[in-house]
Amino acid sequence: MKLLLAFWISLGYVLTTTAVCSAKVSIQTAVDQDTVTVAELLTFRILVWRDEEEKARFLLRESGFPGQFKIRESKPATVKQLEDGRVEEVTDYVLSSYETGDLEIPPLQFLISAANGDTSRIRTKARYVTVRSLAEGVEDIKDIKSPESEVDHERDGSLLWYALILCAAGVGLIILVYWLIKRKRRPAESPPVLVDWYAELKKVARMKLLEKGEYRQYYSLLSELVRRYLEARTGVEAMERTTFEVVRDLHGTPVLDAQVAQVETFLSDADLVKFAKVKPREEVAVEAVGKAEQMMRAIDAKVLRTVTGDSVDPPNEVKG
C-alpha cells in the first residue's frame, strides 16, 4: 500500500479519504490537478480495491456526476490482479468546465455486491476544483459578445464631411428620379435566395485553414455559418447575440433539448478560440466540420419534418 501511495504522489494526484464499505472493499478518488482554467482538461480517477468475488457498481445518475463539469471523455476501466489476491479497478474521466470558481465534483455512490448476494452502499467525499478565467476580468465565456471591428472612425476633417454630404445628396436625387420614372413598372420581388448550408461547410473545409495554423479564422467561419443556419431554420436571432442568449431562445423552438446542448457546446468551443485565443487539439479542430454537419442534419430532420410533416433527406455528407 505504501508503494501504491508513493506512486500516486509522484504523479501529482490529490486523493480523497478512503471510504470503506467493508473490510474487503475500499474506494478512492483523485484529480491530476486541483486548479485549472476555463475549458482546460483535467483527469478524474476512481480507484476500487476489492476481493475478486465482490463487485462495485458506480451509480452515476444517483451521484449527480460530474456536477458543474462536463464529461469530455470516458475511458474504459482497467482491471488487474494484485499480489495479495485482491483486484484493482481504475477508471478515468476527462472533465472540463466553462464556469469559474470553486466547483464541486459531487460525492460518488457505489453499490457493493458480496459473493453471498448481500448488497450495501458506499459513498465517497466530494472534491473541489478551482476553475479560473482565462484572462483577468473575464468571468464567463457566455458573456463574450461578437467582436467589434477595431477600426478608427475618426474623419480627416470638415472637407471630407462636405464631400460626403454632397455625394449623398446626389445619390438621393438620382434614386428619387429613377423611382418616379419606374414606379408604375416596378418588377416583382425576387424570391429569397436558398442557401446550401452543406456546400458552405465544404467551402470552409477546402480552405485548408488548419494547415496554415489559422485556427481563429477557421472557427470564426464555422461559428458564423452555424449561427446563420440557426436563424434560417428556427427564426432565432443568432448573429449579434451571445451563445447563452441563442441557446436560451432555441428552447422555445422545435429543436430537441439534446440538439440544443450540442449547439451550446459547439458555439462555446468556437467562442474560446475566437475570443480567448485558446488553441484546440488538432484532432478536435479537424472534426469540427463533421460535428457541425451532424448537428445541422439532426436539426433539419426535426425542424423541417415539423414544418412540412414529411421526412427530410438532407444533402450528401460533407467531406473535407
The total of beta strands comes to 13
User: Based on helices, strands and strand pairing, what is the structural class?
Assistant: alpha+beta
Kindly report the CATH topology of the largest domain.
Immunoglobulin-like
Number of contiguous helices: 9
Instruction: Write the element-wise H/E pattern from the N-terminal end onward.
Output: HEEEEEEHEEEEEEEHHHHHHH
Distance between the ends: 51 Å
Rg computed from alpha carbons, rounded to a whole number of angstroms: 28 Å
| CATH level-two architecture of the largest domain | Sandwich
Strand content: 15-25%
Low-confidence parts lasting 5 or more residues at pLDDT below 50?
2-12, 14-20, 136-153
Q: Portion of residues in helices?
A: 25-40%
Describe this structure in words.
This protein has 320 residues and is of the alpha+beta class. The protein has two domains: 8-139, Sandwich (Immunoglobulin-like), CATH 2.60.40; 197-308, Four Helix Bundle (Hemerythrin (Met), subunit A). It has helices spanning 2-11, 60-63, 158-182, 197-206, 215-234, 243-250, 257-275, 282-286, 288-308; strands spanning 14-15, 19-22, 25-31, 35-37, 42-50, 55-58, 70-74, 78-81, 87-96, 101-105, 109-113, 119-123, 127-132. The model is unreliable at 2-12, 14-20 and 136-153 (pLDDT under 50). The chain is elongated, with a radius of gyration of 28 Å. The strands form three sheets. Strands 1, 2, 3, 5, 7, 8 and 9 form a seven-stranded antiparallel beta sheet that branches.
